[in-house]
Amino acid sequence: MERQKSGGNYSRYRAQTEKHVVLCVSCLKIDLLMDFLNEFFAHPRLQDYYVVILCPAEMDVQVRRVLHVPLWAQRVIYLQGSALKDQDLMRAKMDDAEACFILSNRFEVDRIAAVCS
């Protein structure tokens, strides 16, 4: 079920009726995820948004634990895919998204390689 969820699509109906943003990452680390989610949802006007995470790697155990926490479970959707592939961007309903965030590993020595990997 988790595999199907990460390989599925963000609902077209939900994308058109609910507000969402897409978070594109090449490698999702738990500290990066927590920092983003805490800062994003700290603003009162963003409380009703969904965050769709688009990452080429399978969800690791730490990320899975965080996304099962009730605070995030109903607001964050993980899709395995790449921001460099049109098909994956369509699965994340990028055309209906309010915003797109592209984050790289903050400890990567080569920032360009971190975004393009």
Describe the protein.
- With 117 residues, the protein is an alpha/beta fold.
- Helix content is 40%, strand content 19%.
- It has helices at 2-7, 12-17, 30-40, 61-68, 70-73, 86-91, 111-116; strands at 20-25, 50-55, 76-80, 99-103.
- β1 (20-25), α3 (30-40) and β2 form a beta-alpha-beta unit.
- The longest helix is centred in the first third of the chain and has 11 residues, at 30-40.
- The protein starts with a helix and ends with a helix.
- Mean pLDDT is 83; it is low at 1-5.
Q: Top keywords for this entry?
A:
single chain; 117 residues; alpha/beta; four-stranded parallel beta sheet; 7 helices; 19% strand; disordered N terminus
Number of helices: 7
Mean pLDDT: 83
Rg on CA atoms, Å: 13 Å
Work out the strand percent: 15-25%
Q: What composes the largest sheet?
A: 4 strands, parallel
Helix content: 40-55%
Structural class: alpha/beta
Model regions low in confidence, pLDDT < 50 over at least 5 residues = 1-5
How many E strands?
4
Query: What is the string of SSEs from the N terminus onward?
Result: HHEHEHHEHEH
Global outline: globular
Provide a brief overview of the structure.
This protein has 117 residues and is of the alpha/beta class.
Q: What is the topology?
A:
Blueprint: H1 2-7, H2 12-17, E1 20-25, H3 30-40, E2 50-55, H4 61-68, H5 70-73, E3 76-80, H6 86-91, E4 99-103, H7 111-116
Parallel strand pairs: 1-2, 1-4, 2-3
